[in-house]
Amino acid sequence: MFNQRPNMKLHLSKPQWLGVSLLILLVTLVLIEHLLYGGDPAKQDLNRALAAPSWGEPLGTDHYGRSNFARLSSAIATSLTMAVACVSSSALLGLVTGVVAAWKRGWWDRGFSWLLNMLLAMPGLILVLLFGAMVPGSFFILYLAIALMLWVEFFRVVRSKTLSLLEQPQIEASRLYGFNAWYLFRRHLWPELREDLFTLACFGAGNAILALASIGFLYVGLKPPQAELGMMMVELFRYYHQAPWVLAQPILVVFILVLSFQLLAKGKIS
């Protein structure tokens, strides 16, 4: 019983395969733009402002004559980088702090729970806005704020589930056999926690993309000339009568990004 190694497999349903396909499609577009077009997302040409899509500019240009294809590709890469970085950090930190708080109890649990309650007293997006307002345009500061916002859910779920798992008889039996803490985590805790972590990570990635786009829409996030989906929306909103396709593009990309992670969240690990 104690020597059996847990195996991890992803069983993807049709909606989950759709989510993977949408992500692959967006990444492929980024690679195509980088390898075949190589446009500068900040290069302006006012003579081509709000140009319609063409062979040279597949998605047209914005109000400054900048390539929409180049800017969308850069914005997608920025959003995915932020999502992966924030989810990876918050998941790892939530896993460690949640297990430690449940395992050690005492002041470890009280300290992390105090931090949790303090963060819960303020809506996550407001926290990100405050961080963004203090150091405008900083990718690192936004990363810290969004990762801290996501940590809350990871910590709550891991701590709660670990508390219940530590009371199960198989863990008590393993302790009586003299197995160390690493063995108990690897054999008993991790197999039960990983599915919840996978689901939280998918939802967290979508939330990170929405948070970055939201503060960009409010002009508190990244600063021009860097391309960012929310900032592109607010810049292009005034031109939706003249060139509705330029506004539709960042909105559609945000929708596809969030939808793809929402579909992936239904994945099951066994």
From TrEMBL:
Domain of life: Bacteria
Keyword Cell membrane among record annotations: yes
Signal peptide interval: none
Localisation: Cell membrane
Transmembrane segment boundaries: 17-37, 76-102, 114-134, 140-158, 197-222, 242-265
GO terms assigned for molecular function: dipeptide transmembrane transporter activity
Membrane topology designation: Multi-pass membrane protein
Location of the ABC transmembrane type-1 domain: 76-265
InterPro entries: BP-dependent_transpt_permease, MetI-like, MetI-like_sf
Protein known as: ABC transporter permease
